[in-house]
């Protein structure tokens, strides 16, 4: 009886092992077959190829959409296709996911050279690793890679597998996929790449950081030439093609006269706005997007952002053409290459004294005159006892003088007199109070509630436009590949203030710049209408100002809401510096 039990136990062990292996293989097969390309999070999807132009028709950005896996009509450009096949997997169309010949050859070469000179992974194996696995060098991971590769070959045809590979491979400098690499290195769409450029991109695959043309152009060219030689030997290009490509000078995106704009946040915002306009109703394959951005203004503003104090201190700038609402400049960060947070749109910060135009406008609507007197003296509203920022009080003071000195007492008195609801309603008509709901507290009048730079600049732009508000837009028009119009900006405005009231507000704003707290923005011989703003502890420093038909807003502060040693005067000075640059106005340093 004991012997029967022992034999049964000996038989159970291999059965359990076999069952475990079978279940493991089954789950692996099931997971791979269930894989949905459209939900692949490692692949950044691009719905359409696009070219984004500036207001003066300079190219800001170009990007091809990723290859559509299930669309056989979406072809891979010939040179791009065979540069990768020739350099990465010569027998791609002959093997079933695993190439024993390549593995044997690579093993022999590595043993002969004494170091790892070649890899034996097929393109299919690389897809398995890119999508399902990681770069762990364990034996277990290699077994998984082989099994997944075999399953992928059953599920997809060769061109689909190649597209998966070209969509997902990392090629350095933040580029995932050949479409992004084409943009990053050459500022081109994929079908615009030359043979030489296609070969250089393919040459990045083994080690993008080592072969990067931005890091080591000589090594990148050397590897490009190896790819070209391989393509010639494999019969994909002629000797003349190879020699011509070798002689071709490499012109990287950053070296070209019309280099693309290195601001992903700005480009992404333009694309988000584009999606809203086309509403995803049509399956567009290519869009030509005419933005409202002035490229030279954008570049000048980005340089000016670097004048801000400590490197952790952040900066945002927005310029709106007042009579159209078109956004001419948008700086989202001091360094948009590494800091991907849009402070123009996403950052909601206390507006400080920039909000005071609302209670003062409400006062003027109610018939209060610029010369009417108010008490600028310390007082409390229940338990709320605000102070003037300067801690100076002027007693009986006119409306215009109180605005010039940026009194905190007077706008609260105005709000109490007119009613907080009226102030909130007027702010809402200016487009304020939607990012953070305005509530009936005394501090409302002096900008304790937050909003973004886009909305407060748009409010000042409406005052500069005779009391008519335009919805801000960063797009002028959208066209298809054959220049067929898809969408065009219609510039619809809404009147929110009487012209007489608007002129009086502009007097307040002009006085603030000429003689008041916004004096750092003044330019000799120019009529400037603007206002500084500061939140508690100098955490937020604002200046919003208008000159001619342009309204520009600036915000400075720390992302972690830390106190600053600068003042709103610094924001006003940087505003002046930007305006002087774009209008070529000489100013004293």
In words, what does this structure look like?
The protein is an alpha+beta fold and 589 residues long. Among the domains are: 66-255, Penicillin binding protein transpeptidase fold; 350-450, 3-Layer(aba) Sandwich (Beta-lactamase), CATH 3.40.710. The protein has 20 helices and 16 strands. It has helices at 2-34, 78-88, 100-113, 123-132, 139-155, 158-168, 178-186, 195-202, 208-211, 217-233, 239-247, 264-278, 295-304, 357-365, 399-404, 409-418, 420-429, 453-464, 499-515, 568-583; strands spanning 49-53, 59-63, 286-291, 314-321, 327-331, 349-350, 373-376, 395-398, 450-451, 468-470, 475-479, 485-488, 493-495, 529-534, 540-547, 550-557. A five-stranded mixed sheet has the order 2-1-3-11-12. Strands 5-4-16-15-14 form a five-stranded antiparallel sheet, with helices on both faces. A hairpin with a 5-residue loop joins β11 and β12 (485-488). α14 (357-365) packs across α16. The longest helix is centred in the first third of the chain and has 33 residues, at 2-34. It is elongated, with a radius of gyration of 32 Å. The model has no long low-confidence stretch (mean pLDDT 87).
Kindly summarize this structure in a few lines:
The chain is an alpha+beta fold and 589 residues long. Helix content is 42%, strand content 13%.
């Amino acid at each position: 009886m004991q012997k029967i039990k022992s034999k049964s136990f000996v038989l159970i062990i291999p059965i359990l092992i076999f069952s475990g292996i079978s279940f493991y293989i089954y789950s692996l097969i099931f997971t791979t077959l269930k894989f949905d390309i459209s939900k692949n999070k490692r692949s950044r999807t691009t719905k359409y190829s696009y070219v984004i132009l500036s207001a003066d028709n300079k190219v800001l950005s170009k990007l091809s959409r990723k290859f559509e896996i299930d669309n056989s009509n979406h072809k891979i450009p010939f040179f791009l296709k065979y540069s990768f096949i020739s350099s990465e997997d010569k027998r791609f169309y002959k093997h079933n996911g695993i190439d024993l010949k390549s593995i044997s050859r690579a093993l022999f070469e590595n043993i002969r050279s004494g170091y790892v000179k070649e890899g034996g992974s097929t393109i299919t194996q690389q897809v398995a690793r890119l999508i399902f696995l990681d770069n762990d060098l364990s034996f277990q991971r290699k077994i998984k890679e082989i099994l997944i590769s075999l399953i992928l070959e059953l599920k997809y045809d060769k061109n689909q597998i190649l597209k998966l590979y070209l969509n997902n491979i990392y090629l350095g400098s933040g580029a995932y996929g050949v479409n992004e690499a084409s943009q990053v290195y050459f500022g081109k769409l994929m079908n615009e790449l030359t043979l030489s450029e296609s070969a250089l991109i393919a040459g990045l695959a083994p080690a993008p950081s080592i072969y990067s043309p931005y890091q080591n152009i000589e090594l990148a060219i050397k590897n490009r030439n190896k790819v070209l030689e391989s393509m010639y030997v494999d019969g994909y290009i002629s000797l003349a093609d190879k020699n011509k490509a070798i002689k071709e000078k490499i012109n990287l995106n950053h070296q070209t006269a019309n280099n693309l704009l290195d601001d992903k946040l700005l480009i992404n915002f333009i694309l988000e706005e584009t999606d809203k306009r086309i509403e995803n109703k049509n399956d567009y394959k290519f869009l030509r997007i005419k933005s409202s951005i002035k490229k030279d203004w954008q570049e000048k503003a980005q340089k000016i952002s670097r004048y801000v104090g400590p490197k952790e201190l952040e900066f945002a700038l927005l310029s709106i053409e007042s009579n159209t609402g078109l956004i001419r400049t948008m700086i989202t960060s001091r360094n948009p290459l590494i800091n991907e947070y849009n402070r123009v749109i996403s950052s909601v910060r206390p507006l400080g004294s920039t909000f005071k135009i609302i209670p003062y406008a409400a006062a003027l609507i109610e018939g209060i005159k610029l010369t009417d007197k108010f008490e600028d003296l310390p007082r409390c509203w229940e338990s709320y006892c605000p102070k003037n920022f300067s801690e100076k009080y002027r007693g009986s003071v006119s409306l215009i003088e109180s605005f010039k000195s940026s009194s905190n007492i007077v706008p609260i008195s105005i709000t109490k007199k007119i009613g907080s609801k009226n102030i909130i309603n007027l702010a809402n008509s200016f487009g304020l109070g939607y990012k953070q709901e305005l509530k009936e507290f005394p501090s409302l009048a002096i900008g304790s509630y937050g909003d973004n730079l886009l909305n407060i600049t748009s409010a000042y732009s409406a005052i500069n436009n005779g009391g008519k508000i335009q919805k801000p837009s960063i797009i002028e028009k959208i066209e298809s590949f054959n220049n067929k119009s898809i969408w065009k900006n219609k510039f619809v405005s809404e009147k929110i203030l009487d012209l007489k009231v608007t002129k009086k507000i502009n007097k307040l704003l002009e006085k603030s710049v000429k003689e008041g707290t916004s004096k750092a923005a003044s330019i000799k011989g120019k009529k400037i209408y603007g206002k500084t703003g500061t939140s508690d502890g100098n955490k937020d420093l604002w200046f919003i100002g208008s000159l001619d038909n342009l309204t520009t807003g600036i915000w400075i502060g720390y992302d972690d809401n830390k106190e600053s040693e600068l003042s709103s005067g610094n924001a006003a000075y940087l505003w002046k510096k930007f305006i002087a640059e774009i209008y070529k106005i000489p100013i004293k340093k």
